[in-house]
Amino acid sequence: MIEFDDVQDLVSPVVIAAFEGWNDAADAASGVIDHLMDVWDARVIGAIDPEEFYDFQVNRPVVGSDAHGHRRITWPTSRLAIASPPELDRDVILIRGIEPNMRWRQFCAELLAACDDLGAELVVTLGALLADTPHTRPIPVTGTASEPDLVDRLKLEQSTYEGPTGIVGVFHDACLQLDIPSVSYWAAVPHYVAQPPCPKATLALLGQLEDLLECSIPLGELPEDSRAWERGVDELAEDDEDIAAYVRSLEETRDTTELPEASGEAIAREFERFLKRTRGDDEA
């Protein structure tokens, strides 16, 4: 059971969760939580007991010094934080976790019980995977939702993936089993630049959250970081003809298989986000 520190009643809270590990290519999904923790000034209220779920020889504790110079050990765990974004009329529960090494069903049950205690009304899980996609094009994001109205409103490109899954897939399935409304977004990270970070993929996931929450999220330096990341990969390709040829083949495949109407919808959604963000800046 997860114990909370000084939590008042929350307003229609939505859960946004991401987990390090297999589900988090280039740290793109956990990067979203890190960004939201910062821009929404989130406060950690509790953590899962790691003893039951982590192999400490795989996820080792870290020793360091605290603000008073005392030596402390930080154990690998999954933490819950809360935020009250000024852009929203509801509170947010953020879960920044590490994929557990064992007892996945119990792990999900404890986290969801904690979310239920906090009054969560919707769970959003984030993931990122490596894929054959060019870095020069918008990062593809697929999604699934438990509620048909969410699928229709968000115009989700439903995932057709079949195969091994990680804790994000298990957590999303646990929501379905408990009839908790849930949405899951997955960003496709170019596999030839798999090393973290990938701000372009993080930015793509944030865009989907903006659509879901119907608000503008402060992006800070992420847009410029994304452009710098893309320029860096361009330079890498320029120095290696094999990579450059491969990227061109991915571009041709992407450009010939993507439906024009799908591209038009994506452009329209991005323009709507831009207008909302601009209006928000003007009002501020």
Description:
Helix content is 41%, strand content 20%. It is built from 8 helices and 9 strands. Helix 2 crosses helix 4 (167-177). The chain has helices spanning 28-39, 104-117, 148-154, 167-177, 199-213, 222-238, 241-257, 260-283, and strands at 14-20, 43-47, 62-65, 71-74, 79-83, 92-98, 122-131, 141-145, 182-190. Strand 3 (62-65) and strand 4 form a beta hairpin. The chain has one domain (14-239): 3-Layer(aba) Sandwich (Rossmann fold), CATH 3.40.50. The mean pLDDT is 89. It is α/β, with parallel strands linked by helices and 284 residues long. It has a 7-stranded mixed β-sheet with strand order 2-5-6-1-7-9-8, with helices on both faces. A two-stranded antiparallel sheet has the order 3-4.
Summary?
The chain is built from eight helices and nine strands. With 284 residues, it is an alpha/beta fold.
Quantity of strands, as a count: 9
What is the CATH topology classification name?
Answer: Rossmann fold
Mean pLDDT metric:
89
Percent of residues in beta strands:
15-25%
State the secondary-structure class.
alpha/beta
Q: Which range best describes the helical content: under 10%, 10-25%, 25-40%, 40-55%, 55-70% or over 70%?
A: 40-55%
Oligomer: single chain
The span between the termini is 41 Å
How many strands, what sense, and barrel or not for the largest sheet? 7 strands, mixed
In the sheet with the most strands, the strands line up as 2-5-6-1-7-9-8
- In the CATH hierarchy, the architecture is 3-Layer(aba) Sandwich
Shape: globular
- How many separate structural domains? 1
> Whole-number radius of gyration?
19 Å
Spans of 5+ residues with little confidence (pLDDT < 50)? none
CATH superfamily: PAC-like subunit
Number of helices: 8
Overall CATH class: Alpha Beta
In N-to-C order, the SSE pattern is EHEEEEEHEEHHEHHHH
